[in-house]
Amino acid sequence: MFPKNCWYVACTPDELTTGPLGRQVCGEKMVFFRNLEGHVKAVEDFCPHRGAPLSLGFVENGNLVCGYHGLAMGGDGKTVSMPGQRVRGFSCNKTFAAVERYGFIWVWPGDQAKADPALIHHLEWAVSDKWAYGGGLYHIQCDYRLMVDNLMDLTHETYVHASSIGQKEIDEVAPVTSVEGDVVTTARHMENIAAPPFWRMALRGNGLADDVPVDRWQICRFTPPSHVLIEVGVAHAGKGGYHAAPEHKAASIVVDFITPETETSIWYFWGMARSFNPQDQALTDSIREGQGTIFSEDLEMLERQQRNLLDNPQRQLLKLNIDAGGVQARKVIDRMLAAEQLAGQAQ
């Protein structure tokens, strides 16, 4: 189950450059396209004529044209025209609120009367020229909550990402988890350790020595419905760690927008925003490539985990101290689901 009365990342603008895009979000099959004014519209991916996917069509004069028999539909879900037919009385398609903001296209799959764009959290790194961002998209066959668990407990880095960001010191420092409202934070600080390969590269990218001891931090923040932003970085040891001056550290924000497709599949929008040398495009490309490789290592683990859980629904799983962040995030999700169910019963 997934909350629907909230904003999810549906796609990125570059995915709409050549025509309509079909995408399933929270079990809802949608098609995204731009109208004549260039605004993104989202309607049900279903032609009312013969049920063909409208996403297999094309955009003409700001309308979505079905690729089967030419029915044209506007962004309001109403049929505009169809060759040789009178369209008055044609059924209207379901529509979904869509907002283009911060380099992403967001969609509200639930009660459209509650779709307030002001509820999209401000992302300073996406609007400031003092930051650079690079990212990508993975389609993963797993429950979205498994990915939330993964990101709120980074002890797996020692094993899944041993060649890039993993190190034994992660296991040796217990995370500290806190909850404020619907925001769950899990933090880990490591002192006077060797930087792993990815962070040695980042230090060099900021003009810093990569062969000296460092202080490292990981601060994971979950916000509903399924977004995790992680402050990560290393600073030369003894310079203040997380609070070190910019000239002594390489720090970034790992961006994780997890969008449920079905109960057991997700669209995973990943990336990294950084505030050091933001003008260096080669560094942005290098970090994106490295991060893409790191996240690809999670893919097989999560998909195999999902299959195991489906095959063994009766098995009870352990809950350890390292799982606190994911457990608390699931409690937030459960509260949202309960509230939506209660609201639905009251209607």
From TrEMBL:
An MF annotation (GO) of this entry: iron ion binding
UniProt cross-references to InterPro entries, sorted A to Z: ARHD_Rieske_2Fe_2S, Cholesterol_7-desaturase, Rieske_2Fe-2S, Rieske_2Fe-2S_sf, VanA_C_cat
Keyword match RNA-binding: no
Source taxon at top rank: Bacteria
Rieske domain segment(s): 7-107
Keywords: 2Fe-2S, Aromatic hydrocarbons catabolism, Iron, Iron-sulfur, Metal-binding, Oxidoreductase
Keyword Protein biosynthesis on entry: no
Segment forming the signal sequence: none
Classification via SUPFAM superfamilies: Bet v1-like, ISP domain
Stated name of the protein: (2Fe-2S)-binding protein
